[in-house]
Amino acid sequence: MQLSLPTIRYLFAVVALWMMPVLPAVADEAGKISFQLNSAAGVKDACRFNFVFHNGVSAPIKDLVLELVVFDRQNLVDRFVLVKSGSLPKGKTRVRQFDFAGLACDKVAKLLVNEVKVCDGGGLEPEACLARLEISGSKSIKLVK
Predict the structure, then answer these.
(1) Beta pairing class for 142-144 and 77-84
(2) Lower CB count within 10 Å: N or C terminus of the chain?
(3) In the sheet that 63-72 helps form, which strands lie side by side, from edge to edge?
(4) Can you tell me the distance from the alpha carbon of 131 to that of 68, in angstroms, rounded to the nearest whole number?
(5) Residue 139: pLDDT band with limits 50, 70, 90
(6) What is the bridge-based pairing of β-strands 33-43 and 46-55?
(7) CA–CA separation, 49 vs 55, rounded Å?
(8) Predicted confidence (pLDDT) per residue in 12-70, tens digit
(9) Mean pLDDT of the region 84-101
(10) Which domains does the chain have, with CATH numbers?
(11) What one-character-per-residue DSSP string does 17-34 give?
(12) To which H or E segment does residue 95 belong?
């Protein structure tokens, strides 16, 4: 059976349209969002945290907001805080600095990424961003999810 050129073009177009929603999702599956606690240092009456965000997904992220829980050396919850990445274009690495007032860095044992409050952009929902989140802590403070 031999197909005519218009039939082949039609079939190619149908297959291409059918694959369009699938291809970005497959490519996007491999992408990760990195979140690193780079350093923590005492300043005045606060602990200053430097976090590194990296967008490894195939679309820009307008804003990423993470809810962190601060645990002390006795493994007790000290506080809940929100950290925001700001705009993260595709492939972009961004450093953000946050001062947690009234907190001594040497009293912090770990930070828990409790949840993703906002993941705006790239067609991702907060749950999908949490699943794609790769984390790493510093030498003295663990970062867990």
Answers:
(1) unpaired
(2) N
(3) 77-84, 63-72, 108-120, 142-144
(4) 16
(5) confident
(6) antiparallel
(7) 20
(8) 444 444 444 433 333 344 599 999 999 999 999 999 999 999 999 999 999 999 999 99
(9) 96
(10) 1-30 (no CATH), 32-144 (2.60.40)
(11) HHHTTHHHHHHHHT--EE
(12) strand 93-101
The identity of residue 126, as a single letter, is P
CA 19 to CA 24: how far, in whole Å? 9
Confidence (pTM):
0.77
**Residue 143 contacts by C-beta under 8 Å, 6 or more apart in sequence?**
35, 36, 37, 110, 111, 113, 135, 136, 137
User: From CA 32, how far away is CA 131, in angstroms rounded?
Assistant: 9
Distance CA 101, CA 86 (A): 21
The secondary element (H helix, E strand) that includes residue 16 is helix 5-19
